[in-house]
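Schema walkthrough. Field components (list of strings):
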Amino acid sequence: MKKLILVFLSWTLLASAPPVLEARLTPKRSVLENGMVLLTSEERALPMITLNLLIKAGSRYDPQGREGLANLAARLLTYGTRSRTALQISEELDFIGAGLSTGCSEDLATVSLTLLKKDLDAGLNLLADVLTASVFPPEEIDRQKKSVIASIRARDEEPGAIAQTKFLEALFPGSPYGRPVEGTEGAVERMERAELVEFHGRFYRPNRAILAVVGDVSHQEITERLAKVFQSWDRGGAAEEPVPSASPGPANSIRIQKNLTQANIIIGHEGVPRSHPDYYAIQVMDYILGGGGFSSRLMDSVRNERGLAYSVYSMFDAGKYVGTFQVTMQTKNESADEAIRIAIEEIRRIREQRVGEDELQAAKDYLIGSFPLRFDTNRRLAGFFAQVEFFELGLDYPDRYPEMIRKVSREDVLSAAKRYLQPEKLIVVVVANQEKTGIKK
Amino acid sequence: MRFWFFFFSLLVPAFLSLPVQAQTSQIQDVMLENGLKVLLLENHKSPSVTFQVWYRVGSRNEEDGKSGLSHFLEHMMFKGTPKVGPEEYSRIVAKNGGRSNAFTSADHTVYFATMSREKIGIAIELEADRMANALLDGSYFEPEKKVIMEERRLRTEDNPTAALAEVTGAVAYTVHPYRRPVIGWMGDIEGLSREDLQRHYRRYYVPNNAFIVVAGDFSTPEILSKIKATFGKIPRGPETPKVRVEEVPQRGERRVVLKKEAELPFLLFYYHAPNFKDPDSFALDLLSVVLAGGRSSRLYQELVYHKRLALGVDADYEGLSVDPTVFSITAQVMPDKDPAEVERAIDSLVARMRAELISEKELEKAKNQVEASFVFGQDSVFGQAMRIGQYESVAGWRLLDSYLAGIRKVTAADILKVAKQYLDTDRRTVGTLIPIKEKKQ
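Field assembly_structure (string):
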């Protein structure tokens, strides 16, 4: 059929900044009385508003044996409140054509809402309702459990997703950062309503939340309205939980048998958290190695020269507390071994020789030059503001960024490669028809 | 689709078909002497400019045994010209802070770059150069063929639902070229030659078979003079061959079963339907929203929420196609549920759509959803440019003007009429994915 296919070269979040101060990238910031951090930016071109809420209620807060609780809680927010049934919530949202979605990651739950300016009051009422008055009706819990379990199974037909799960499991054994946010079928099955209610009461608190609002509304206007709809939402008293440990697992070679035509490969190890002082040198180095789309070394050697893969890239994914490094690619079963060997060769090469002056300059030019263009929609701006706050980068981050990239030297790249690429620690995951790969165990 | 991708049809069902009513009056339409049309829309909400070249050629223009030719050519367009080295295009754009890529569909091949106002001239020069001077270099031909075969393995061979869509499409159409996959059959890709590419390039890559769309932060006179100075020099080519194949009317349901390693069964219904040139398209668009727009929609309520038969459902009217198209309904079946039962549930729901008027409230809700997504769709200049290009390639961009008015005029009786006329069992093809167990090695 007609497959309209489109592309976003999505570089790692928050990678860079413009040469001159960009007013539109600097939000207004305030802290509401109940402790919620509010970031806003007026964008008056369209009669629409995007709200992006992050809340510290991710899967790292799952109690032991209850893996998947945070995810289930986030999903259930929109399935019944004190004053609305699940159907009423969706009827109201659909009637105004608004989009309200919830999500969950290791650190954060997210709620995002996009609506027309004229529907702001209706939308904020709904938003406040699902955040503060969710009741977790038993029949909805049952429904969402079945749905989560089906999703866990459905993931088993996506070889890339299987590889990712196995990689994280081997990298952070026993840690919340090493297991799927959805949890396991068994744990989801066992979840009880009281646990959801308790989790919600404890973690869904305004002083754990960041709200970014971008669109046709002023800071003052939104502040007043939020104060009204959230007046009954109180701070939580719970102390900040310690960050769960995530000590990296040893080098490993993991083979998963699937009757596939391609081997889905992930090679990687531990990375760095977002606050790491060498983060920027690492980003430049990774751009040259495999983060730079069609400009990267991995793309050249694996795809362009040898035709071994359609997609190949590397990424230092930096979270607040932990990070990963991984190379991801797919190649026909028969060439799995060769592709892995070439990728590892590239990892070694960038550790041994300084990168070229032109390569370095191209990387910096892209990272600095593309920055203001990357946040070219309200939704992306709202996402960016919330992340800057969560990672504590500071409101002046867009102004500081170009300099942090500009000052990275060839020596910095080399030393970042030496320190943060560790061939002896690589975990290699191959989901493939193993008989055909010819990889020795 | 050289890298990264997603399917538009997975977004809000009516998203792409939504108009830019408030803004079409601002579109400038300029025809160069060589037959190249230029469509320009200034939008200064963010600092980026999207520049797109649309060639009116896709898999629709291919012949049996040569499927995948347009897509292969798209890949080879990145292999340089006498002035620009292989893969340099992407590097030059990236070094100047921009992102670039391309994609192929049944109807067109599109190249695009998003850059700042100061830099967009670079992309314009590069695109004009490769419209006339692409080398399609021999030494890169074989490796790139391997890349495309990997792409096919990734997208289709190892992706059960994509494989189902491919085989169902091949049965829904018997003579029209829409029966062939855009990426091509594996055997055809293998058999394509350099001469095939050269011929295709010479025949279709002429200014009079292309048009340009520019949207974003630029000045019209400035960019027009740049376009004239570059593209204006390319001579008009011979008229391109027209595709005049008409699909024979279907008389009786067709059924396809795909047995493949997978976790969940999947159902796909293709109903023949007219494209956007037909006045029925407004009602068909709204019909897709009534069926699957949001959680309060009919399919979602019935199959996902009440009966818990499906993990997810969708309805999609792909009216933006050059020739008559299909209206699709899909369902991912819950574990342990029988696809036949899901099919019966869809059938009885469709039967109701064909027998009873929807309520005024339901109609208003669908219209509100369409209008809201229309505003949200303008948040991205890239999205705006895409929409203008799609309309232009199907029926002329001016059709955008009448779109929203057309939607507003639709009555419940119109929706009943199109449901009766097009959601006809005798004019559909049903594809079913039956998961089989992994063969143990």
